[in-house]
Amino acid sequence: MQALFEDMAKRISGWLSGKGEESMVVLSTRVRLARNVSDCIYPSAADPESREKIVNYFSSVYTRSEKLKRGRFLSAGELDPLDRDFLVERHLMSPTFMPKPDHNSRGLFVSEDEQVSVMVNEEDHFRIQGLAPGLSPDVAWQMVVDMDNEIGRFLKFDYDNDFGYLTACPTNVGTGMRASVLIHLPGLVITKDIERVLPKISKMGVVVRGFYGEGTDVLGNLFQVSNQTTLGVTEKEILEQIASVTRSIIEDEAKARERLLAEASNQIIDKIWRAYGILKHARVLTSEEVMNLLSAVRMGIAMGIINFIDIPLVNEILLLSQPAHLQKFFGREMNSDERDFVRAEMVRSKLN
Amino acid sequence: MQALFEDMAKRISGWLSGKGEESMVVLSTRVRLARNVSDCIYPSAADPESREKIVNYFSSVYTRSEKLKRGRFLSAGELDPLDRDFLVERHLMSPTFMPKPDHNSRGLFVSEDEQVSVMVNEEDHFRIQGLAPGLSPDVAWQMVVDMDNEIGRFLKFDYDNDFGYLTACPTNVGTGMRASVLIHLPGLVITKDIERVLPKISKMGVVVRGFYGEGTDVLGNLFQVSNQTTLGVTEKEILEQIASVTRSIIEDEAKARERLLAEASNQIIDKIWRAYGILKHARVLTSEEVMNLLSAVRMGIAMGIINFIDIPLVNEILLLSQPAHLQKFFGREMNSDERDFVRAEMVRSKLN
Predict the structure, then answer these.
(1) Which domains does chain A carry?
(2) Distance CA B279, CA B60 (A)
(3) How many CB atoms lie within 10 A of CB A264?
(4) Between chain A's N and C termini, which has fewer beta carbons within 10 Å?
């Protein structure tokens, strides 16, 4: 089982390639669609047999579709806890999906390039997700539309002429779509302007959440910007809204960074170089610390202060630093202390 | 005036050469003698004219002695505040000597190799000091004896057949001698064993004080070990006592380091490498931070963890990081922010 994702663990996810617009600041764009098969009970209310039926439906699409066949379809029963963590870290499934193995009543499809995935029997029968690097709502959208159409060739979805797509949770009814952007805002955090910017954004019908924060900590100054409304708006409108709000946040971030360089240039440059110095020399590193240090390095690259490291490398270290990735990368299970040690080893070797 | 010590500022003091016994742990050994000219009132009770008379006595020795002539004799009036700080940082005079210029009633002699200095009109008429690298009480002693004899060829000292040499403060009466050792004890500090070792040392009639601490902070884990008693013991006994107590502290320190490496190896090695990484990359460094980071690096060198830096370089950076040295080194007066910036620049260039 360990070997399941060994190949994957050694390469960077496509959505972290550092390509795509605004990729200095925007890591990735995600679009997901909620779809349910007509006349089948929603997963949360369904018994295991009914859920397995949905898995079988998808499985049959998987084997019949030329397009899907090139990807992988994994059933929950095939995955050990490390595999599941690995897939969550890679943003291929949500953390609440498959909290424990439940054999064959859930499944995950991952496309060959890892940019499209389908969670089968999450909150809805299908959650189709497209992930693209940088600020690329149209690219991510096109990927999920293609997948939606492909699955739709074989299965009929719950659709209401008035409401649109029907979903398990009413907040997803309509387009069934959520678009989100993973964005790096160290300037706004350091200047504390984030406290002024977030309420402004909320009024625009968009939610901004700190990323991967346990408790209230925002790790690595990463935020997720996503749409709140799915009903009464078109998909195109949602994509445009996310793009335009993101561009406005990018401008605020740029202004914050300019101000930092004007008012506290030495302190900021010092912070960036110290972060690099610690990453390059530390022998023990937690994943949280790596996220925070990489945040400073990423800002340093964007500001032209560090010019010998590129964004794809920062993304790669960010990805590989996560606990399950680290274990897959080194090919063995490790406790937290061991991980902190080999994480520092991995970071040093990547920076050399 | 600025140019007064420019040559000195570019070179390391002889006592920081890293040579001498136990120089991984012991930075330097200092011996000083208190001497007073017969039938002259002690400095604290003397009027400026009487003090000037003593300066003139010394000045006359300076010009007549072949040995002294090769050094420099500076009168307080020649020195601006930066010069005075520079000499204190270089351990050539005490911080309380010449707190402000008082023209010609105080003076400082410095030998050509900077290992012997004489403060004229500090607490006593003459404070003769010898500084040697490493644990070298005999070397430092020989230097002050030679100087004592040389001055004694021209001037008669206050000496009592019962008490020995007479001094301004009764604690110095007798030999008039104080011997001290500057020692680096990071292992004892980190393990907190220092709290157990210090009281043990005190019972042996020796004082241990944190070095250059403002308030209660011990900077750079540096301690000064010195004798408490000057009366009723011979010079030889004091020197032997300091050497033997120091050797016992060195053993305690070695045990503490072994224990650290056995019990928290990764954490200690991490601390050492992070310190190096910050020194090598920071853009802003206070002198206190440099002392603390160099402490970790020095321990790393002694432990064989860092093998591409030598102790003389660590000593040189320690010396040059101090505010007055930094300004002499760069040849201009600077405020604290500017110093923190150029200090980081100097440290980086020295480590390259």
Answers:
(1) 2-254 (3.30.590.10), 260-351 (no CATH)
(2) 47
(3) 14
(4) C
Instruction: Give me the amino acid identity at B222.
Output: L
Q: What is the DSSP letter of A103?
A: T
Let me know how long chain A is.
Answer: 352
Residues 6+ apart with CB under 8 A from A60: A154
Element (H, E) at A69: helix A66-69
Q: Which of A261, A271, A284 to mutate to test the interface with B (most CBs of B within 10 A)?
A: A284
ipTM of the complex: 0.88
CB contact under 8 A, A280 and B282: no
- Which one of A273, A334, A338 would you mutate to disrupt binding with B, by most B Cβ within 10 Å of its Cβ? A273
B310 touches chain A (CB under 8 A): no
**Which residue matches tokens 């884990």?**
B221
pLDDT tens-digit map of A58-110: 999 999 999 998 999 998 888 888 999 999 999 999 888 876 666 678 999 99
Nearest to A274 among B266, B276, B282 (CB): B282
Residue A337 belongs to what H/E stretch? helix A336-351
Tokens of A56: 């079988």
- Measured CA to CA in angstroms, residue A324 lies from A19, A81, A314 at distances of 25, 9, 18
CB distance B98 to B84 below 8 Å: yes
The pair of structure tokens assigned to B152 is 């004694």
Pairing of strands A177-184, A222-227: antiparallel
What is the CB neighbour count within 10 angstroms for residue B224?
Answer: 17
**For residue A267, what is the nearest residue in chain B, using CA coordinates?**
B284
Q: What is the pLDDT of residues A272-318, one digit of tens each?
A: 999 999 999 999 999 999 999 999 999 999 999 999 999 999 999 99
Structure tokens, A235: 């998909």
Cα-to-chain-centroid distance, residue B47: 30
Structure tokens at B117: 């200095």
Q: Is A282 on the interface with B (CB under 8 A)?
A: yes
In the block, tokens 């302190």 appear at A267
State both tokens at A105: 């009543």
Token code pair at residue B301? 């060198």
On chain A, the residues whose CB falls within 8 A of the CB of B267 are 284
Q: Which residues pair with B57 in a beta bridge?
A: none
- Residues of B within 8 A of A351 (CB-CB) are none
Task: Yes or no: say if A16 and A133 are a contact pair by the CB < 8 Å rule.
Answer: yes
